């Protein structure tokens, strides 16, 4: 289950260890929002929530506080104190100011990642994902090599700020979405979770926590937990429908690719190509900063064939390109990957 492990690296520890969903009544008592499964590309045209359908920060906050009071139970650490919960609110406001990322969105991602437990442990499947935001290689944490209780306000703010502004933080993933409509948030959520969006453009497709973007779209509408109708196994085939979001996947119509590239990991290697000093293709997401040797993927390449062609040790590509899955199934033709420092 290498692929699944990688998937969790950039995704929610919630998926790993949060066993018992909150009773549905809690969600409904909170804002009245019940879950809708969103399929497709994150646009309003495909039925995803417009920004006007988001709840206000205050409403979302009120709805999520009851969850935050008990959410550390999932990690067997002390629950958040009232002071820590106050500090989370201040941290969300501060991080939103610093980054320009809407605090409603920061809150939704935080709840998705850790349920707002300040002592959420660091997960590490090749890259550290610490704390409240389980962000990409952030520094701040109140649970790594020892549990901090209380978790100091400055660390709480730093955890949230790093989720917003670090490499692959939400500010950057919004930019990477290249969208300017509300879909930028849902696309950014997907990129935050898994490093990239599948070739189909469907936010539930490819290697990821498939319901992640749909969950986040529900969270900004005020849903907090319970009664999810999103199925990990089928959401990637749901291409979305204006007005109705619980439609069955349309089996007869393939989602439209947003790019001409295709994952090609299952094909056979072809003629070796040497590495380049500058990327000749689109730079792959997560390629190491300051990379000196690049390799542009040709039809038929695998991670192993590319490494062999460049004379690099096995595993180099995954090491130097954090967007690449452990099983190399998301290697993209025409993209340049770092293959040497
Ligand atoms: C956290 O809250 C939950 C729910 O009230 C409770 O079951 C659990 O024991 C609490 N955890 C601790 C460590 O007090
Ligand atoms: C789904 O399939 C039906 C017929 O099978 C077709 O009419 C329709 O255009 C397809 N697409 C969507 C998005 O409903």
Automatic annotation (TrEMBL):
CDD domains: LysM. Residues 257-270 have a biased composition (Polar residues). Residues 293-339 form the LysM domain. Residues 227-285 are annotated as: Disordered. The keyword Acyltransferase does not apply. The keyword rRNA-binding does not apply. Keywords: Chitin-binding, Signal, Virulence. SUPFAM superfamilies: LysM domain, Lysozyme-like. Residues 1-19 form the signal peptide. Gene3D superfamilies: 1.10.530.10, LysM domain. GO terms for molecular function: chitin binding. This is Carbohydrate-binding module family 50 protein.
């Amino acid at each position: 289950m290498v692929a699944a492990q990688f998937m969790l690296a950039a995704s929610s520890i919630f998926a790993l260890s949060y066993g018992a969903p909150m009773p549905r009544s809690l969600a409904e008592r909170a804002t009245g929002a019940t879950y809708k499964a969103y399929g497709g590309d994150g646009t309003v045209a495909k039925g995803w929530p417009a920004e006007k359908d988001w709840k206000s920060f205050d409403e979302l906050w009120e709805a999520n506080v009851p969850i935050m009071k008990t959410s550390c139970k999932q990690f067997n650490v002390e629950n958040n104190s009232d002071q820590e919960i106050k500090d989370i609110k201040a941290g969300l406001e501060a991080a939103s100011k610093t980054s320009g990322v809407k605090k409603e969105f920061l809150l939704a991602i935080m709840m998705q990642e850790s349920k707002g437990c300040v002592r959420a442990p660091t997960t590490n499947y090749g890259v550290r994902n610490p704390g409240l935001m389980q962000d990409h290689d952030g520094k701040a944490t109140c649970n790594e090599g020892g549990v901090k209780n209380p978790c100091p306000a400055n660390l709480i703010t730093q955890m949230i700020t790093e989720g917003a502004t670090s490499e692959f933080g939400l500010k950057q993933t919004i930019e990477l979405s290249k969208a300017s409509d509300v879909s930028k948030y849902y696309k950014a959520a997907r990129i935050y979770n898994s490093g990239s969006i599948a070739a189909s453009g469907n936010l539930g497709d490819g290697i990821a926590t498939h319901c992640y973007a749909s969950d986040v779209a529900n969270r900004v509408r005020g849903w907090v937990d319970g009664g999810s109708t999103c199925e990990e196994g089928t959401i990637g085939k749901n291409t979305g429908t204006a007005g109705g979001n619980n439609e069955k996947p349309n089996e007869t119509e393939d989602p439209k690719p947003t790019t001409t590239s295709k994952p090609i990991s299952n094909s056979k290697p072809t003629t070796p190509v040497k590495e380049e000093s500058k990327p000749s293709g689109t730079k792959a997401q997560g390629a190491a900063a300051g990379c000196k040797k690049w390799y542009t993927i040709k039809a038929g390449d695998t991670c192993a064939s590319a490494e062999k062609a460049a004379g690099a040790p096995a595993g180099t590509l995954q090491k130097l390109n954090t967007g690449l899955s452990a099983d190399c199934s998301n290697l993209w033709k025409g993209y340049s990957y770092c293959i040497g420092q």
